Protein backbone atom coordinates (compact mmCIF):
# COMPACT_ATOMS: atom_id res chain seq x y z
CA UNK A 1 0.00 0.00 0.00
CA UNK A 2 1.31 3.44 -0.93
CA UNK A 3 1.43 6.09 1.75
CA UNK A 4 -0.15 9.47 1.07
CA UNK A 5 2.49 12.18 0.99
CA UNK A 6 1.31 15.39 2.61
CA UNK A 7 2.64 18.87 3.24
CA UNK A 8 1.77 21.20 6.08
CA UNK A 9 1.49 24.95 5.48
CA UNK A 10 1.84 27.43 8.32
CA UNK A 11 -0.11 30.59 7.54
CA UNK A 12 -1.02 33.83 9.26
CA UNK A 13 -3.80 36.34 8.74
CA UNK A 14 -2.65 39.94 8.39
CA UNK A 15 -4.95 42.92 8.64
CA UNK A 16 -3.71 45.85 6.56
CA UNK A 17 -4.22 49.23 8.16
CA UNK A 18 -7.36 51.14 7.12
CA UNK A 19 -7.44 54.93 7.10
CA UNK A 20 -9.83 54.98 10.07
CA UNK A 21 -7.58 52.65 12.04
CA UNK A 22 -4.53 54.72 11.13
CA UNK A 23 -6.13 57.79 12.72
CA UNK A 24 -7.08 55.81 15.81
CA UNK A 25 -3.59 54.39 16.23
CA UNK A 26 -1.60 57.65 16.25
CA UNK A 27 -0.27 56.73 19.67
CA UNK A 28 1.12 53.49 18.21
CA UNK A 29 3.00 55.38 15.50
CA UNK A 30 5.34 56.79 18.11
CA UNK A 31 6.42 53.24 18.90
CA UNK A 32 8.55 51.25 16.53
CA UNK A 33 6.19 48.33 17.04
CA UNK A 34 3.18 50.24 15.68
CA UNK A 35 3.45 48.86 12.17
CA UNK A 36 3.80 45.32 13.39
CA UNK A 37 0.97 45.52 15.90
CA UNK A 38 -1.47 47.04 13.40
CA UNK A 39 -1.06 44.12 11.01
CA UNK A 40 -1.03 41.33 13.61
CA UNK A 41 -4.34 41.37 15.45
CA UNK A 42 -6.67 38.92 17.10
CA UNK A 43 -9.03 37.47 14.50
CA UNK A 44 -12.76 38.06 14.96
CA UNK A 45 -14.90 35.18 16.14
CA UNK A 46 -16.52 34.86 12.68
CA UNK A 47 -13.23 33.44 11.40
CA UNK A 48 -12.85 29.76 12.24
CA UNK A 49 -11.20 26.71 10.72
CA UNK A 50 -14.47 25.91 8.95
CA UNK A 51 -14.84 29.35 7.35
CA UNK A 52 -11.18 29.37 6.27
CA UNK A 53 -11.62 25.94 4.68
CA UNK A 54 -14.77 27.10 2.86
CA UNK A 55 -13.07 30.24 1.53
CA UNK A 56 -9.99 28.28 0.48
CA UNK A 57 -12.15 25.84 -1.45
CA UNK A 58 -14.08 28.75 -2.98
CA UNK A 59 -10.79 30.35 -4.04
CA UNK A 60 -9.66 27.07 -5.60
CA UNK A 61 -12.97 26.85 -7.47
CA UNK A 62 -12.85 30.45 -8.73
CA UNK A 63 -9.19 30.54 -9.72
CA UNK A 64 -8.58 26.97 -10.91
CA UNK A 65 -12.06 25.65 -11.76
CA UNK A 66 -13.46 22.22 -11.04
CA UNK A 67 -10.13 20.59 -11.84
CA UNK A 68 -8.25 22.63 -9.23
CA UNK A 69 -10.93 22.12 -6.59
CA UNK A 70 -11.13 18.38 -7.25
CA UNK A 71 -7.38 17.90 -7.33
CA UNK A 72 -6.40 20.00 -4.30
CA UNK A 73 -9.61 19.76 -2.32
CA UNK A 74 -9.53 16.02 -1.76
CA UNK A 75 -6.93 16.03 1.04
CA UNK A 76 -7.25 19.69 2.05
CA UNK A 77 -7.79 20.10 5.79
CA UNK A 78 -7.27 22.84 8.38
CA UNK A 79 -5.41 21.07 11.19
CA UNK A 80 -5.14 24.05 13.53
CA UNK A 81 -6.31 27.64 13.73
CA UNK A 82 -6.01 30.10 16.60
CA UNK A 83 -8.03 33.31 16.63
CA UNK A 84 -5.75 34.65 19.34
CA UNK A 85 -2.60 34.52 17.22
CA UNK A 86 -4.32 34.53 13.78
CA UNK A 87 -2.17 31.60 12.68
CA UNK A 88 -3.09 28.18 11.40
CA UNK A 89 -1.84 24.98 9.79
CA UNK A 90 -3.21 23.48 6.58
CA UNK A 91 -2.63 19.91 5.43
CA UNK A 92 -2.65 19.20 1.70
CA UNK A 93 -1.32 16.65 -0.77
CA UNK A 94 2.34 17.08 -1.69
CA UNK A 95 1.60 17.48 -5.41
CA UNK A 96 -1.08 20.12 -4.76
CA UNK A 97 0.96 22.37 -2.48
CA UNK A 98 1.47 25.01 -5.17
CA UNK A 99 -2.25 25.17 -5.96
CA UNK A 100 -3.13 25.57 -2.28
CA UNK A 101 -0.45 28.23 -1.78
CA UNK A 102 -1.76 30.22 -4.74
CA UNK A 103 -5.36 29.90 -3.56
CA UNK A 104 -4.26 30.99 -0.08
CA UNK A 105 -2.54 34.08 -1.44
CA UNK A 106 -5.49 34.95 -3.69
CA UNK A 107 -7.96 34.89 -0.81
CA UNK A 108 -8.69 38.36 0.57
CA UNK A 109 -11.97 37.81 2.38
CA UNK A 110 -13.15 35.22 4.89
CA UNK A 111 -16.88 35.18 5.46
CA UNK A 112 -18.00 38.71 6.35
CA UNK A 113 -14.48 39.89 7.18
CA UNK A 114 -12.85 41.57 4.20
CA UNK A 115 -9.57 43.23 3.26
CA UNK A 116 -7.19 40.80 4.85
CA UNK A 117 -4.11 38.94 3.69
CA UNK A 118 -3.47 35.24 4.13
CA UNK A 119 0.30 34.92 4.29
CA UNK A 120 1.94 31.52 3.87
CA UNK A 121 4.87 31.46 6.29
CA UNK A 122 6.38 27.97 6.00
CA UNK A 123 5.82 24.66 4.21
CA UNK A 124 7.06 21.42 5.74
CA UNK A 125 6.61 17.69 5.41
CA UNK A 126 5.77 17.12 9.08
CA UNK A 127 3.38 18.92 11.37
CA UNK A 128 5.93 18.72 14.21
CA UNK A 129 8.46 20.88 12.34
CA UNK A 130 5.78 23.42 11.44
CA UNK A 131 4.70 23.64 15.10
CA UNK A 132 8.29 24.06 16.29
CA UNK A 133 8.88 26.78 13.71
CA UNK A 134 5.68 28.58 14.74
CA UNK A 135 6.79 28.55 18.40
CA UNK A 136 10.28 29.88 17.59
CA UNK A 137 8.81 32.54 15.29
CA UNK A 138 6.36 33.80 17.90
CA UNK A 139 9.10 33.93 20.51
CA UNK A 140 11.22 36.09 18.20
CA UNK A 141 8.17 38.19 17.40
CA UNK A 142 7.44 38.84 21.09
CA UNK A 143 11.09 39.54 21.86
CA UNK A 144 11.22 42.13 19.06
CA UNK A 145 8.08 43.83 20.36
CA UNK A 146 9.23 43.86 23.98
CA UNK A 147 12.66 45.29 23.11
CA UNK A 148 11.20 48.27 21.18
CA UNK A 149 14.56 49.82 20.43
CA UNK A 150 16.06 51.47 17.36
CA UNK A 151 17.13 48.11 15.94
CA UNK A 152 13.52 46.95 15.82
CA UNK A 153 13.24 47.04 12.03
CA UNK A 154 16.35 44.88 11.75
CA UNK A 155 14.85 42.45 14.27
CA UNK A 156 11.59 42.43 12.32
CA UNK A 157 13.45 41.44 9.17
CA UNK A 158 15.02 38.52 11.07
CA UNK A 159 11.80 37.14 12.57
CA UNK A 160 11.38 34.67 9.72
CA UNK A 161 15.03 33.61 9.65
CA UNK A 162 16.82 31.16 11.87
CA UNK A 163 19.51 32.01 14.38
CA UNK A 164 22.27 31.30 11.87
CA UNK A 165 20.78 33.78 9.38
CA UNK A 166 19.32 31.33 6.88
CA UNK A 167 15.65 30.90 6.11
CA UNK A 168 14.12 27.75 7.46
TrEMBL record:
<comment type="similarity">
    <text>Belongs to the eukaryotic/archaeal RNase P protein component 2 family.</text>
</comment>
<dbReference type="InterPro" id="IPR002759">
    <property type="entry name" value="Pop5/Rpp14/Rnp2-like"/>
</dbReference>
<dbReference type="Pfam" id="PF01900">
    <property type="entry name" value="RNase_P_Rpp14"/>
</dbReference>
<keyword id="KW-0539">Nucleus</keyword>
<keyword id="KW-0378">Hydrolase</keyword>
<keyword id="KW-0819">tRNA processing</keyword>
<dbReference type="GO" id="GO:0000460">
    <property type="term" value="P:maturation of 5.8S rRNA"/>
</dbReference>
<dbReference type="GO" id="GO:0030681">
    <property type="term" value="C:multimeric ribonuclease P complex"/>
</dbReference>
<dbReference type="GO" id="GO:0004526">
    <property type="term" value="F:ribonuclease P activity"/>
</dbReference>
<dbReference type="GO" id="GO:0033204">
    <property type="term" value="F:ribonuclease P RNA binding"/>
</dbReference>
<protein>
    <recommendedName>
        <fullName>Ribonuclease P/MRP protein subunit POP5</fullName>
        <ecNumber>3.1.26.5</ecNumber>
    </recommendedName>
</protein>
<dbReference type="GO" id="GO:0000172">
    <property type="term" value="C:ribonuclease MRP complex"/>
</dbReference>
<dbReference type="InterPro" id="IPR016819">
    <property type="entry name" value="RNase_P/MRP_POP5"/>
</dbReference>
<dbReference type="GO" id="GO:0005730">
    <property type="term" value="C:nucleolus"/>
</dbReference>
<comment type="function">
    <text>Component of ribonuclease P, a protein complex that generates mature tRNA molecules by cleaving their 5'-ends. Also a component of RNase MRP, which cleaves pre-rRNA sequences.</text>
</comment>
<dbReference type="GO" id="GO:0001682">
    <property type="term" value="P:tRNA 5'-leader removal"/>
</dbReference>
<dbReference type="InterPro" id="IPR038085">
    <property type="entry name" value="Rnp2-like_sf"/>
</dbReference>
